[in-house]
Structure formats: C-alpha cells, structure tokens
Amino acid sequence: MENFLFYFFSSLAIISTLCAILNTNPIHMLLYLIISLLSVSCIYFIIGAYFIGALEVIIYTGAIMVLFVFVVMMLNLGKFTDQTERKWLKYSKWIIPTTISILLLTAVSISIINSDNKIISKKVFNAKEIGISLFSHYMIIVELVSILLIASLIVALHIGRKNNKNKLLNK
DSSP for 56-114? Predict the structure, then answer.
C-alpha cells in the first residue's frame, strides 16, 4: 500500500509541476505548484518524516505561496483578469481541481489509517537541532534565499507600478 501511495504522490507531483511550468496564467501556475508541494509533503509523511512534511506545508505551501499570490494580486492586471475570473467561476472549470483534492484527501486518510510504525526510524529530530543546523551550517543559503525573495518582491512591485503608470498615461 505504501508503494502505491508513494508512486501516486510522486506522479501527482511530477504532473502538477509540469502543468505549473507549461501554464501561462500566473494564478493557475501557483495552484498547480501548491498541489505539487502538498504532494511532496505527503511523500515525507509516508516515509515517516513528519516534521519535514509539516515544515513543507507550513513554510513552502503556506508562507511562500501566499507571498507569491500577494505579488500576483499587486500586479493588478485590470479588466482582463475580471473577465477571466468570471470564466473561472463556472462549475465545469472546478471539476479537475475538486477531483484531485478528493483523491489527495482519500490517499492521505488511507495512509494515516493503514500506517504502522515499523517504517518510522527511531531517531527523532527536534526543532532545536534543525534550527541549529539551519543557522550554523546552512546560514548563508538561508540568508541568500531571503534576499532573493525580497528582491523578487521589489521587482514585482516595480513592474506593477510601471505598468499602472503606462495605463494611466494612455487613458
């Protein structure tokens, strides 16, 4: 059963990542990326790395994806997005995401019910050990990632303001 769940979540992660790469709509791309990150966290849960799976959900899926959604919202693409949002509200557009969400929920529920503690290693990593590791050995990488996120937010704001000034000048 665990092999089936592993292959299911890994194939779902690969497919949703490909959809995120190939999609041109930024909101759809972010939603596919969220599905991919949730699939990876489910793989962590399957192998017994519960803390890493929870960090994947909280940090990547929660915080960083919300930041990306805010950046996309700040760009404010105008009337074009209003028309496309009306198209998205049709029920036929929600069949595939609802089906994927139900499959994810079912697979996670089955894996939790059928889990046995034989595959979980006995070594437990607490938050203190992970924090010490992050801010000692990997401190430069953590700081570079934070600088990259701030720089991308500033660039997105600059592009959004530049496009809004051009729209106002053309009216």
Answer: IIIIIIIIIHHHHHHHHHHH--THHHHHHHHHHTSGGGGHHHHHHHHHHHHHHHHHHHT
